[in-house]
Amino acid sequence: MRLLPGRLLARVTALPAIAASAWLLVAFPLLALGSFTPVAAAVLGTPAVIAACVLVPRFVPDPPEDEAVPWWPLVLVAVITVGFAVVQVAYHAEALVIRRDPASYAMYTVWIAENGHLPIPQQRELIAGDDPALSYQSLAHYDRDGAIWPQFMAGAPLVTSIGYWLGGLDGMLVTTPFLGALGVLAFAGLTARLVGARWAPLGALVLAVCLPQQWVSRFTYSEPLTQILLIGGMVLAYDALVRRTALTDRWSASHTLAAAAGLAFGLALVVRIDAIRDLLPVVGFIGLLLLARRGQALPLLGGLALGIGLGLYAGYGLSLPYLEYLSDSLNPLLLISAAVIAVTAAATAALWRFGIPRVERVRWLPHAATALALLTMVGFAIRPLFWPDYGHGSDFTDAWVASVQEREGLWPIEGSRTYYDMSLYWVGWYVGLGTVLFASLGVALVLRRLVLRRDPQWLLPAMLLVWTVTTTLLRPAITPDHPWASRRLIVLVIPAFILFAVWFLAWLTRRCTVAGAPARRGAAFQVLPAVVAASASLAVFLPAAATSAAGIMGYRQDVGSVAATEELCASLPEDASVVVVDPGMAGNYMPLLRNVCGVPTAAMDEPTPEDLDRVVAEIHGRGRDAVLAASDWQVLEGLTGSTENVERPFHVLAQMDPSTLMEPPTGHWTFNESVWVTVLPAGG
């Protein structure tokens, strides 16, 4: 069999989702059983990933245009993917001190990579027992029933643990840049399938240069892995549906690919609980497949059910305090999901008997779909003028937004302002208004063609992407400062805009090709397609590149944190028990001391000399050295009356991301943190 470029591009771009799914399918049960060790993961996970990556791509069908695809699209996609990974590794962040989510995921990773189980024991018996002056809960770590449960879902830490095993803290921190690059590769595959192989490099390039894709890939965020699974799921579903199979047909390559697609979709729930919302259109699509008597329906449903089952156990079995924290938004989403499943089942049963309506015969419906898509985008564009959004439901968030407004010089100061009405403008910041315009025209045309029962390969991507874009832009549900809020856009929203924009450019180029046909026009018109394709591609690429270049891409965040953390851990005695006596730093540093340094850690919110003497005596009574930690040496001096043994093993002065509300982020703020410790030896 010849290794043609089209065939190779199709198979390589399916690999990220296949590999990620295989790893999670093995790693998560190991964690649930408390056996997530390097040996067990290597013995079981490595063969599973290798086998999946060798066997499943063999089922990927050759693209229809395989013989005509040149090598240059494949080469360009490879260069873009590798270049993206190199740049992100070079600029990766060292976020280990918990301020926001990246360090929370990092602490989660370190714990399970070192210990292989959850929850995290409090080790009260090694500090001062049940002394009422001590507390154990900290940022992103919940105190429940005498144990510590880390925030968030297990999926991303299960993958970044590979980097930790291979290279310690540095290895963990450079894992996500590779995941971001694999997300770019998967998106190139989706673009190649839905638009054409020659357009895949443009789609990959625009996603690679846009600021949010670079930004999330430099931190230990969960978005890059979620992106791989959801975009990769669409890639595998496309491949599964190329061949038509009946419900009664024997198992085939199409069934295998459909099961793999469903599994990739479902496992996204192991990574992010809010993936439930994104998966609702997949349920409806399975109903349509059943009505079409397609044999891929049941394998797709089976893979989806398995992945969602693991995701629900990941949430309610290993992250229950986190889901309780999200209950105000999660419980309604679960009810909506149950309603969607019930309605889909009922509608499928009814239409199975009576047949699907011939909507293409309704003459006004294609025009209505086109108009609705365009009017929706217009509505998002004028929303800030007529419907500004207020109400975070959190005093802390209100105070933070107000502080950013004051720093940015905005007036009036309204901390309750959510800026959700600006969500379409956020997209425009990062990919350019040209991309937003082209995408709006593209989605309108795609929906029109779907109503006319053309381009059926677009049905699932359009259902999933249109639903996710609409619901996300309506309510991003995130603190609105940037680049932080761009996280909500990068998994599917920005890729959707890029994909529809590139599809429209391809459609426009084909129309110009027809208009410039030699039989109809002069020689001057023959260059029209190339001119249109080149100029429109620049209109899509340049704004995204300009925002990134002028933004936050020229520095690394929290540089020096790894070295400072290693120095802090080395400064602690082997039998130390740490008490953080500075309430201002307890939430940020307790997980680092406990998870990375491996020492029993507690906090005293408002320490008094009497409480401190009692706790230190309890620690000494257990034959352990007491270590007091604070962010300022004066705190330790005030409690101990001396600075004789006070040291500062942790000190980082570095750049950190800014926060903006009404413009793309530029420049940087300063991160300046210290940890002072004093060791009180047992018997000293």
TrEMBL record:
Naturally occurring in which organism (per UniProt): Streptomonospora nanhaiensis
Q: Report which residue ranges the record marks as coiled coil.
A: none
Keyword NAD tagged? no
What this protein is called in its record is Glycosyltransferase RgtA/B/C/D-like domain-containing protein
- The superkingdom of the source organism is Bacteria
User: Which keywords are on file for this protein?
Assistant: Membrane, Transmembrane, Transmembrane helix
Taxonomic lineage of the native organism: Bacteria, Bacillati, Actinomycetota, Actinomycetes, Streptosporangiales
Membrane-spanning regions, if any?
12-32, 39-59, 71-91, 147-166, 172-192, 253-270, 276-292, 299-318, 330-352, 364-386, 427-447, 459-478, 490-509, 530-555
